[in-house]
Amino acid sequence: MALDLEGYLIDVERARGLEDIQTLILHLRDQYGVDHIVYHWVSSDGEQYGCGTYSPEWAQRYVDKDYLRVDPVVIGCFQRFHPVDWRKLDWSSKAARAFQAEARDYGVGRQGFSIPVRGPNGQFALLTVSHDCDDEAWDAFTLAHQRELILIAHYFNLKALELEHARAPEPIKSLSPREVDTLTFLAMGYSRGQVADMLSISEHTLRAYIESARFKLNAANTTHAITRAITEGLIVVGGTSRAADGGWPGRRTPS
C-alpha cells in the first residue's frame, strides 16, 4: 500500500510528544517494508534524543559508548545538506569498521540512507532508513522514495524543535582568532597533530584552545562545538575542503 504522504504529514504536525513520533515511525517502517527507520537528533546543548526501530539494547549501547563521536554516518553527514547513501561514506578506519560490525550484530541493516537536517542554535538531526537487501534493490528504493523522505525528515525536525522549544541554549560567546583557526582546521578534516603543526603550537596548547571553545559554545564535545560554530557563522568551511567528500579524514574520535 502506497504511503498517504499528505495525511502522514498532517499526523506529524498533530503529534503531541515523543510517543506519537515513535508510533508514526513504526507506521512509516511498515508502509515502506524496511527493517529500520530512526530519527536521531542532537540538541544545541549536546543532549541526544531519538525515536525509531533499532533495538533498545543497541540504542543504549550507542549512548553509553558515545558512538556519536565515531559513527561514520554522523561524521559523513555533518557537513552535507543532501541525503547520503551509507555506501558512499568512509568506513576505512579501524574504529569505523568495528562500529559497523557491532551495529550489524545488533540488527542494523547493511544498506542505509540518511538525511541530515539542521535547526537553530546548533541542533543537528538525521532521518535514517536501513535495510538488508542487494544494491540494485536499494538503489530502486531510494530513487523511488527519497523526495518524500526528505520532506518527512523536515517535518519531524520541525516537530522536534516545537517539543524542545523550552530548552533555550545559553548565548554564544565570541571565539578568539586562535579558537576560530583551531575549529576551522578540525572541521576541514585535519588531525590534532596536523592542526598543531599548522598553527606552530604544541598539542597541549591546541587542547586548551579546543576546551576553551567548547566552554564558550556550551558544547558537549568537539564535534558539537564545530557544529555550533558553523551554525552560528563563527567559522566557515568551504565546499572545497577535505571534508567535502568521504567524511572527515584523519579526525575520527573528537573529545
Describe this entry's structure for a reader.
- By secondary structure, the protein is α+β, with helices and mostly antiparallel strands.
- It has 2 domains: 159 residues, Beta-Lactamase (2-Layer Sandwich); 68 residues, Winged helix-like DNA-binding domain superfamily/Winged helix DNA-binding domain (Arc Repressor Mutant, subunit A).
- The chain is built from 10 helices and 5 strands; from the N terminus they run ααββααβαββααααα.
- A 5-stranded antiparallel beta sheet has the order 2-1-5-4-3.
- β4 and β5 form a beta hairpin.
- α7 packs across α10, α8 packs across α9 and α9 crosses α10.
- The radius of gyration is 19 Å and the shape is globular.
- The N and C termini lie far apart (45 Å).
- According to CATH, the homologous superfamily of the largest domain is Transcription factor LuxR-like, autoinducer-binding domain
**Highest CATH level, the class of the largest domain:** Alpha Beta
Amount of beta strand = 5-15%
- From the alpha-carbon coordinates, what is the Rg to the nearest angstrom? 19 Å
Distance between the termini: 45 Å
Largest sheet: 5 strands, antiparallel
Using DSSP, what is the number of strands? Answer: 5
Number of helices: 10
CATH architecture of the largest domain: 2-Layer Sandwich
Spell out the helices and strands N to C. HHEEHHEHEEHHHHH
Main-sheet strand order equals 2-1-5-4-3
Number of domains: 2
Query: Which percent range fits the helix content?
Result: 40-55%
